[in-house]
Structure formats: C-alpha cells, structure tokens
C-alpha cells in the first residue's frame, strides 16, 4: 500500500504588495482573489482526498481562528500548529516534518505556500506523483516552473542530470538569485526554471539533512515540538525553544547545500500572486483585456484590472492600470509598477497610519466586527456573531456602549442580569459594567454598537472568562 502524502501548508506573512486588500490583520492567503475559495482554501482543497493525509498548517497565533474557520468551511480537518514567533521558512518546515514523523515514521511531506495560485489542481497532483519516486528514494524534491517570460521577481533553478529511476526528475545543478532582465532572458534561453518554493520529501531524510547542515535550527525546533502544548484545537510550539532556532530560509539552510536536491520541471500554471498585476494575468478578461472583481465599468479602457467588492468603480480612457478599492482606501497604479505598492505600505507604517495594517473589518473566533463611523469620543460598529458564538465576559475602563439588535437573537449579560433581545430591541452597557454578548440562535446575530468615551481602543478590554482562552 502506498503511504499517503502529508501536506504541510505554510500560512504566515502579510502580503503587503496586495495592499489595500491584504494587510497584517487579514493577509492575502485568506482573501478570495481567484475563483470562489481563498488562496489558503484552494491550497487545502488541492491536496485533499485520495493519496493525501490530513494537512499540517503552520501559522501564527493571530491567524489561528481564521485558519480554523476557513478549514471548517471546507469540511477538512487537520493539525493547526502555532509558531510563537517568525523564524523564516526552514524552522516552520522542520517543525512540520517533526510532527509528520510522529504521525508516520515513513511519512512523505509535501510543503506548500498558502498564498500561491495553481488553477489546474489535477496537473499539479500529476507532477507530485512524478516527484514521489525520487522522494521515496531519499531526494529532497522541489518543483521548478518552466518560465514563459524573463521574470526578474523569481529565483531560478538550473536543472542538472536526470535522476536515475525517477522519470521526469533532475538533480539540481544550481540555485540562482533573482536576476536582472538581461540575465533572466539568458536563463529563459538556457532552460532554467522558476523556483516555486514547494517541496516533497521524506520527513526522516529532511530532518537528517537539517541536523547535518543546520543544527542550530534542527535542535531547537525538535525541542519546541517535544515541549509543544495543546491550546483548544491548536498545537502551540514551545516559544523559548523555538526562539533559539536560527532564522533562515529552507533554500539557504538545506537546499543549496545538500547533495540530495532534485527538481521536477513543471508546466502547470503557477503564480505566487506577488502583485496586483498577477491577479490581472490570472483573471478572466473581456475583449479589451479588462478584468474585474466586483462591479466595474470600463469605457475606452484596455488591459486594466479593477478590484472593488464594495463600490461601483468606473475606469475611462486608461490603459494598463490597476484600481483597487476598500472601504477605507483606494489604490491606483500603473500595472507594470504594481510591485511598488510595498513602498506605500512602508510610508503608511512610518506615519503610523492604521490603514497600513488594519482593516475596517476585524475577524474574531466568534464572528467579526466592522467600524462604520468614528469621531473624537464615539465609534459605531456592526457586530456579527456566529450561531453559538460567545464573546468574552468583559468590562471597559474608558467607554460605555449601546447595542441595537438588527437581526437574530442576542443573549446579553450585564452584571447579574441576563436577558434575550430580538430585532429592534436595545440595551445600554454602562462604563465598567461586566457584560457579555452571545448568540443562542441558529442564524447569525447582527447588532449595531455605539461606543462613547475618551478612549475607544481594542485594548480597553478586561476579560474575566473566555471560551477562546484569551484571558
């Protein structure tokens, strides 16, 4: 019987080059940019079913409930592993390999980035099968994409001799850094491949190579897994041990040093979604080359992209332009300069602008809230609580609140008073009162909250009880 491949999905990072849609509080892997799934969900779905085991998802504590909710929506279960801090890709992959090895001593591990787009899942899985024989024979396999243009934003791989006994797999002669245009054109002519950053290997082989080539990563990560603790449905790596691991990418730590590296030259469609221009390339276009997500009108425009889920956006007489709108920001850029969006985020961050990192919509394990309006001493929010969801039992030092039920049923605790509120009913939460909001019903609960007081920050919360262990 052929052993199932264990998918490992790396689900960190902020994706600032896709601002304003992608921000630290809700990064690009959780956005629906191509198709009907988020990038993360599409990655999980791509490796679900026959031949694959339950996935191991490596993420940070800030994203744990987002990961859990999006996996629940797919009906797919797996291990969600929490990194206590970012130590680059190698430590994350090593932790997943240690966990996979404990699940199955003969485990084959398939490492995938959560924010890549691969539209043809069947073709991708065919390429994985090509790499399986080499991985079972002790090779650490990556997937090199045959380039269709001289891209300067990717690292490249120079394939070497064919791997004996593994048709369609080559040894790796060299990894090379992102080139300038002239060098990229030469790489294209010489048969180099784009480095996709996805890997297939035996967990045991990878960990043995890591111990040999990068012991300052292997030892601390092994200890972090051994000392890991359960937190609800999550596995939390030990922070002290994990923090001792050297921060280094898997390419630098292992792939460029090992003599076991191999590559599957691959021709499935692939994009790392590094900029809005990549979304345009993947999107369905009209006769003039225009593409849109949301409502858009194009008049005399060509080869433009509009991402506008909340607003009707019109583009007139422009060529090769990207327009992206959210409820609190608008981006307009030449399509060939879309990668410079990161510099905008840097400027906003330096100016301490909330828009650099936070959305108006914030997600919580019980639901979400959206800031609708804000002034000097007040803020209005729309709060949605999932059926069965329950906010923490809490109080505020600086603000009072009014709640109005828009739809659904609310169970509200204020001090010793517990009552049910339905549509159009309201309640006042005095300053300092211990209170809680719950949804005991079977449909989402939606309320409008009006806060008033001298300070309205999210850190003005004292929690007494919390189903999600945030006390």
From TrEMBL:
InterPro entries: GMPP_N (IPR049577), Man1P_GuaTrfase/Man6P_Isoase (IPR006375), Man6P_isomerase-2_C (IPR001538), ManC/GMP-like_b-helix (IPR054566), Mannose-6P_isomerase_type2 (IPR051161), NTP_transferase_dom (IPR005835), Nucleotide-diphossugar_trans (IPR029044), RmlC-like_jellyroll (IPR014710). Its EC number is 2.7.7.13. One of its GO terms (molecular function) is isomerase activity. Keywords: GTP-binding, Isomerase, Nucleotide-binding, Nucleotidyltransferase, Transferase. Residues 7-287 form the Nucleotidyl transferase domain. Residues 294-348 form the MannoseP isomerase/GMP-like beta-helix domain. Residues 353-466 form the Mannose-6-phosphate isomerase type II C-terminal domain. It catalyses: alpha-D-mannose 1-phosphate + GTP + H(+) = GDP-alpha-D-mannose + diphosphate. It is an enzyme of class 2 (transferase). GO terms for biological process: GDP-mannose biosynthetic process; polysaccharide biosynthetic process. It comes from the Bacteria. NCBIfam families: GMP_PMI. Belongs to the mannose-6-phosphate isomerase type 2 family. This is mannose-1-phosphate guanylyltransferase. It comes from Prosthecodimorpha staleyi. The lineage of its organism: Bacteria, Pseudomonadati, Pseudomonadota, Alphaproteobacteria, Hyphomicrobiales.
